[in-house]
Fold these 2 entries.
Entry 1:
Amino acid sequence: MRHGKKTNHLGRKTAHRKSMLANMACSLIEHKRINTTVAKAKALKQFVEPLVTKSKEDTTHNRRIVFSRLRQKEAVTELFREVAVKVGDRPGGYTRIIRLGNRLGDNAEMAMIELVDYNELYNAGKPAKKKSTRRGRRGGAQKEAAAAAVAPATEVKEEE
């Protein structure tokens, strides 16, 4: 029985698996999208997302933690400089997996994993939305919108 064992070993020993995921993560950070198998893409998503979350707060401690996982100085620098700035307001879900079909040689299921904010096709139609705060009362936003719609209609002209 495999109770409580949720790590996909990907047919590799521990050191090989960690090195492979570190290399794939560095490639993803450098190129913003990579093609791989679906199983590796899912494993990479679990590997990369915590690192991107760490990169949102640029401290020496976070840089050292990320470097211990990635093992490439250039990838860490790019993650903290460019990627963290772009995903700064996103509360998670930094990567997207798109299935591509099966590979011709061995019929393996292929996928493209990409950083979400770097895809111009999906983000082109969406305007930059402003941040909104959630209010505690029910219907508060609807009442405010109705009051704002009525306010311009009740303007009084000033006579000179």
Note: The CA atoms of residues 120 and 127 lie 12 Å apart.
Entry 2:
Amino acid sequence: MVRTQAKRTLENAMRRWGFYRVAGCDEVGRGCLAGPVVVAAVILDPNRRIPGLCDSKMITAAQRERLFDVITRRALAWAVASAPPAEIDTLNVHRASLEAMRRAVFALAPLPDLVLVDAFRIPGLLIAQRAVLHGDRRCSAIAAASIVAKVTRDREMLAHHADDPRYGYDRHKGYATADHLAAVARYGYSVLHRRSFRPPSLFDTID
């Protein structure tokens, strides 16, 4: 995958329309077998540029950690929220992700004038918003949110690994890799696993 630096073009255009505090919002963990969906919302300071912002999937863990520190120091505001496995199982992963997005945006202080969301619109937001396709690659505020969400979730999964190393969360962070599926087949689902995510290979091995 070619690394593409996200730009401030869209945020700058929105500010010219009078939306000064422009938030980016993105999530990580939708496709995981275990762990939460984590959402971040970030309002970047237009006067404090952060070089290197891009889709969190395009950079290394060390680069994400460095950018996380810069983003959280220089942003006008940032917030994170999560949808735990029980909420995902109750609502489904899409609705739970949107609800976590709403919580993250409303946790910002000050609140944004406009929210740019990667791919989706957030129901019931009551704040101006715009869905941006491939926003984490195109828009600096969404890219910043993707990095904050990814680092936050990875740190949480490392903490879960320290508590219970059987599943290998330090390696796959809850995604359905072959070794993760093998661990689930051996040990069963933990409290961290999403019961509504049932890979066909496990149907005959897990109650």
Note: Residues 203-207 have pLDDT under 50 and may be disordered.
